[in-house]
Amino acid sequence: MEFDEVPVETYMTTEVDTVGPDAWVTDVVDRLKGGSPYGGLPVVDEADRLLGFVGAIDLLEVYGAKSVAEVMTRELVVARPEMTVKDAARVIFRTGHQFLPVVDDAGTLLGIFSNGDAVRSQIERTTPSKVQSTREMLERTHGVSIGVSERAVDVASLIPTQREVYGDELEGRKYELQNGLAEPLIVVSYGHETLLVDGHHRALAAQRLGIDRMPAHVLTVSPDEITELGLRKMARLGGLDSLADVDVNDYVQHPLIEKTEPSG
């Protein structure tokens, strides 16, 4: 199946907290205080048919005993399970919504497709192609067959192959890690060493967040077969032995970026 044909139901979240229309607004407030990934709750009837959505904005200036049905938003943009991920992501982007409820022909709530699910779908699309291209490059360069596996690796033991990362992107990777949206790293296991090929921003962000281990696609290269691995030589020539050797380029401190002085 082409990725453009992958349906929303493949990536939507199916375990969704909901509320009934007869619930009191005070109950919703208490539940939202506990945290909601969507900033509110879908409103469904006894048959799980979607009636509306109640979020924090619907509760502003609501006083007294009122039911959810009195304050909920009734006009919603929804997706069908057969809608493609690509089209759903386009709707999310163009409407400014953070998510789309997914319903069937009867209006039954099947799940939620969020912008986070859209990001996750892209990760699952791009990472395998990156791994394959790295594998093919190494096999072509050194004329050997290279195995690939998936496992967690120690962040502290990674040997970088990139001298510089960017501060703004580093902050973005922190957010992804904290919200479970980061791609796995791509590394090369070379004897007792682990060379970081793809994911320098993610690795440094993990280190700053105190994350000791990260999932990775591991390409295994034997020193017996390749005595002079190009990636290892590149790291050695660049003086890169650990993540501490990677420089962080902060655009705000760039000599061509000016900061205005506060007035008054």
From TrEMBL:
<keyword id="KW-0645">Protease</keyword>
<dbReference type="GO" id="GO:0008233">
    <property type="term" value="F:peptidase activity"/>
</dbReference>
<dbReference type="InterPro" id="IPR046342">
    <property type="entry name" value="CBS_dom_sf"/>
</dbReference>
<feature type="domain" description="CBS">
    <location>
        <begin position="12"/>
        <end position="70"/>
    </location>
</feature>
<dbReference type="InterPro" id="IPR036086">
    <property type="entry name" value="ParB/Sulfiredoxin_sf"/>
</dbReference>
<dbReference type="InterPro" id="IPR003115">
    <property type="entry name" value="ParB_N"/>
</dbReference>
<dbReference type="GO" id="GO:0006508">
    <property type="term" value="P:proteolysis"/>
</dbReference>
<keyword id="KW-0129">CBS domain</keyword>
<dbReference type="Pfam" id="PF00571">
    <property type="entry name" value="CBS"/>
</dbReference>
<dbReference type="InterPro" id="IPR000644">
    <property type="entry name" value="CBS_dom"/>
</dbReference>
<protein>
    <submittedName>
        <fullName>Prohead protease</fullName>
    </submittedName>
</protein>
<feature type="domain" description="CBS">
    <location>
        <begin position="72"/>
        <end position="129"/>
    </location>
</feature>
<dbReference type="InterPro" id="IPR051257">
    <property type="entry name" value="Diverse_CBS-Domain"/>
</dbReference>
<keyword id="KW-0378">Hydrolase</keyword>
